[in-house]
Amino acid sequence: MTDDDRTDPAQDLIRFGWEEWVALPDLGLPALRAKVDTGARTSALHAYDIETFGSAKAPQVRFTVHPVPGREDLVIPCSAKVLDRRMVTSSNGESESRYVIGCTLQVGGESWPIELTLTNRSGMASRMLLGREALKDHITIVATDRFLQKELSYDVYASSAVRQRAPNRALRIAVLSREANYSTRRLVEEGESRGHTVEVIDTTRCYMAINAMAPEVHYDGARLPRYDAVIPRIGASVTSYGTAVIRQFETIGTFCVNGSEGITASRDKLYAHQLMARHRIGMPNTAFASSPKDTDSLMRLVGTAPMIVKLLESTQGKGVVLAETKKAAQSVIDAFRGLRANFLVQDFVKEAAGEDIRCLVVGGRVVASMKRTGAEGDFRSNLHRGGSAKVVRISREERDTAVRAARAFRLNLAGVDLLRSESGPKVLEVNSSPGLEGIEGASKKNVAGMLYDHIEERVRPAPVRKRKLLG
Description:
There is one protein chain. The longest helix has 14 residues, at 239-252. By secondary structure, this protein is of the alpha+beta class. Among the domains are: 3-165, Acid Proteases (Cathepsin D, subunit A, domain 1, Beta Barrel), CATH 2.40.70.10; 172-263, Rossmann fold, CATH 3.40.50.20; 285-348, Dna Ligase, domain 1. The chain contains eleven helices and 29 strands. InterPro entries: Asp_endopeptidase, ATP-grasp, ATP-grasp_RimK-type, ATP_grasp_subdomain_1, Peptidase_aspartic_dom_sf, Rimk_N, Rp_bS6_RimK/Lys_biosynth_LsyX. Keywords: ATP-binding, Ligase, Magnesium, Manganese, Metal-binding, Nucleotide-binding, Protein biosynthesis. In the C-terminal section; belongs to the RimK family.
């Protein structure tokens, strides 16, 4: 069929058959077969899992579409503003209340705005119905023909280009946090500025229905809705329960910025150092023992004094002691053992001079870095203990080390703390819930925005494995 057959220039009419290939680019749907029905007022789209979210003043709706008949494995997540809710009577006489959305319709080389109702059309042959309100005045219907406009192909869904064309749809995101601190406020503020709905959930108030068919997370007496992504801000005191909640979201299939395994590994300082050793990531010489008879041997493994004695459960510099002499180290170790506390002994990197570097890694790349300096007379550089921070340029080796450390823990968001030593960068710690205040203040970068860039990229629909597609 030639282009002359598809249009009639003399009458300036667009000729439609009773079925046409269309695209809905606003929803990330590059190819759909639509049945043209002038008997229907409003157009309709086949949608699953229809769910409203957002504020009452500006409600939005989320839904999923299976654009290819017979391909239930191909799922395109969509969202749009709710324009209306309307009672629609189908051809079989049944009435249904449907959400109405607006989007752009593309047919051939033409595009124009239309309204769509959302409904489950699983019993219908066409994934979309094109009603008379969507048909422009200069469209003429040829009821005996089909595909008079440019034909498309479902094969487009098997291409990586489908991700590049996918719109940045509105997302529903949960921030798991017990504190209304700077980091939580920034995540809410940045998400809402992008049109997303961001809900702060107290981790300890979640509870779980654990079963094989329909695992759920409940909160304050009700099942939590589907979230596009979860951003964990799990405090050290609730690591065990917090990671259990994250595992439940993972079981449901929700994208979690940091997974339960990575958070657990980062919080267990002994396991964290063993994991870094497995991945050959530079770190201070570290030793661990249980028996008090091994104290001298333990210290010899690390080196000579001064040395660091660190509780395994230490956070923000608490439970970290600098022993300047061998005798002082023995006293601290004996004291910790008397408390039945688990601890590590580490070499003290003198050349670091009370400074470390925090590298913020998002999605496998360092997006910001700062140098932290301890308060006067304090070897610890934690900002929570009065330290100061300023922006710093890092070397390629330091950047690679930070990225490798985040990757070893499988963290999409990580604060990697490095020491600059004579033998290269040494990783002190990998933080799975890094604060944003210090790094944003020092670097003047929108780190929260970079995290949302990564989330938006990850929750886009992925191309499906190409196999024989209908049409």
